[in-house]
Amino acid sequence: MFYKYPQIKAINYFNNSLPWENSFALYDNDILLETYNALVSDELFIKEYGQTAPIGYKNITNGGIELGSDIELSVSAYYPYANNVNEISVKYWLDDMLLSEVTQSPYTINLAQDELAGKLELKVEMIVNGEIKQTQTINLMHN
After folding, report:
1. Residue after which a domain boundary falls, among 21, 40, 57
2. Are 74 and 108 within 8 A, CB to CB?
3. Mind listing the pLDDT tens digit for each residue in 48-70?
4. What is the CATH number of the domain that holds 90?
């Protein structure tokens, strides 16, 4: 959940005491309380006011990405008319050579520095139902 929806950094749940059978109070339902505690225990959630998340996201623009070490790339891909997440895939191209097609969020690939040596351009395509819906080309800037 945390990598599929990286903008979610907190869950707030208000107990309520309802007089009917479908009460959603955490303290009345051991399974619900256990599930809630498991979800909020993840290190990606902010635990208290003023705390920051342990990972960060950097938007890559057409200005390029500076290289100097191995990199991990993840893409946030959403298309409003895709009914099933499996309909979306992301293709990564390096100087017009297909590196990988990833079909599961967060659509991540890892690239070693030696794979990037001498390469000029990284292209990312979002594919929905076999059709290219969005393309971004990123210049690679070598140190």
Report:
1. 57
2. yes
3. 766 665 555 555 655 667 777 78
4. 2.60.40.10
- Considering the domain architecture, whether residues 99 and 42 belong to the same structural domain is answered as no
Q: How many domains does the chain have?
A: 2
The confidence score (pLDDT) of residue 7 equals 57
Looking at the structure, tell me whether residues 10 and 32 fall in a common domain. Answer: yes
Gyration radius (Cα) of the chain, Å: 20
Q: What is the pLDDT of residue 62?
A: 55
Burial class of residue 116 (count of CB atoms within 10 Å of its CB; 0-12, 13-18, 19+) = buried
* Nearest Cα to Cα of residue 75 among 51, 97, 99, 41: 99
Which stretches in the chain have pLDDT values below 50? none
* Structural domain that includes position 13: 1-57
Could you tell me where the beta strands, DSSP code E, fall in the chain?
65-67, 71-73, 88-94, 97-102, 109-111, 121-128, 131-142
50 shares a domain with 74 = no
pTM of this structure: 0.58
